[in-house]
Amino acid sequence: MQPSSEANQRIARISAHLYPPNLQMEESSVLRRANCRAKGGAPGFKVAILGAAGGIGQPLSMLMKINPLVSVLHLYDVVNSPGVTADISHMDTGAVVRGFLGQPQLESALTGMDLVIIPAGVPRKPGMTRDDLFNINAGIVRTLCEGIAKCCPKAVVNLISNPVNSTVPIAAEVFKKAGTFDPKRLLGVTMLDVVRAKTFVAEVLGLDPREVDVPVVGGHAGVTILPLLSQVKPPCSFTPQETEYLTNRIQNGGTEVVEAKAGTGSATLSMAYAAVKFADACLRGLRGDAGVVECSFVASEVTELPFFASKVRLGRTGAEEIFQLGPLNEYERVGLEKAKKELAASIAKGISFIRK
Ligand SMILES: NC(=O)c1ccc[n+]([C@@H]2O[C@H](COP(=O)([O-])OP(=O)(O)OC[C@H]3O[C@@H](n4cnc5c(N)ncnc54)[C@H](O)[C@@H]3O)[C@@H](O)[C@H]2O)c1
Ligand SMILES: O=C(O)C[C@H](O)C(=O)O
Hints:
Blueprint: H1 5-16, H2 21-27, H3 29-39, E1 45-50, H4 57-66, E2 70-77, H5 81-89, E3 96-101, H6 106-110, E4 115-118, H7 134-151, E5 156-159, H8 164-178, E6 186-188, H9 191-205, E7 216-218, E8 225-227, H10 240-251, H11 253-261, H12 269-287, E9 292-299, E10 307-315, E11 318-322, H13 330-355
Parallel strand pairs: 1-2, 1-4, 2-3, 4-5, 5-6
Antiparallel strand pairs: 7-8, 9-10, 10-11
Bound molecules: nicotinamide-adenine-dinucleotide and (2S)-2-hydroxybutanedioic acid.
The site of (2S)-2-hydroxybutanedioic acid has 11 residues, from helix 11.
Family: Belongs to the LDH/MDH superfamily. MDH type 1 family.
EC number: 1.1.1.37
Catalytic activity: (S)-malate + NAD(+) = oxaloacetate + NADH + H(+)
């Protein structure tokens, strides 16, 4: 007796569990249906995460699978992405998940994407600066951005890999070389600095962090992280001691986590939270929502430097408006000069890595 088509489907469904996840992607009828659902115009955006199996990548992938704005989620890594993909694909949320393993699958992972989030690269250990990661992460970011230039040149890119102050200029140079650079679409992720600033300022003020707004400008390393405490909302004032304490804590938040993790890595969970908050803002902008404003490290004319973090308005084409810094007090003006000096060197290092 021939099995009914319903029985065939049941068998296909069971056998899909027996094959490695990347084979499931290619061959099972279950996945073919999911692919059809994705192709059939399910509303939402196509998002790729590069470095999806890492400390940030895994919780970030899980949280993006929950995001209702995502219809297709591509998880790429050089190790372990089949396992992470199989695991996350069982979540009963709308996004269709596909896994990609290793360089030969990079192009498939990137083709057709609207947003690419990059947490690929090595993290710090105690005693290291973010710049100590340059030698390894610069090459990783270059390769991934070459893939983006080739396969999804119109995608918005959220770059997390450190040192952000240099990796964003590296990405810009790769895109310029390929003739695809659109400054609006390249966004360095500094959201964790804002998340920390809101948390620490709210502690001092005795408020819920969700009620607090703190612009953090400059860059993403040490003194280049410049919280503008004079612009905190709701309006408030701080004593010089509070200003010193808050500025230091925000600038050294990453090191606080690196030391607490004692050699096992840097911030991953709070970073995944921050990355999802920022990616969600980018997707709402792409959808055409009005008034989506977040801080990001972007190509900028706000200072004399070619890149700078400040508030940006996210729209259908990326960072459509970059806001000026607004009035700074004396403490912030001194901080800005220090930040610019270090930033200039980090930006130059990134640019010369590609131009040399
Ligand atoms: N921007 C920020 O605020 C911020 C915050 C935290 C961490 N970071 C940075 O994010 C990066 C990742 O941190 P983590 O804790 O997730 O590290 P991790 O080592 O846990 O994970 C990194 C992942 O990247 C993958 N990877 C390495 N080379 C790759 C390549 N060529 N292509 C694709 N994937 C590749 C690894 O296999 C690994 O799964 C680090 O550089 C870290 O400093 C940035
Ligand atoms: O501090 C690090 O090395 C990771 C990250 O940049 C952070 O701010 O937590």
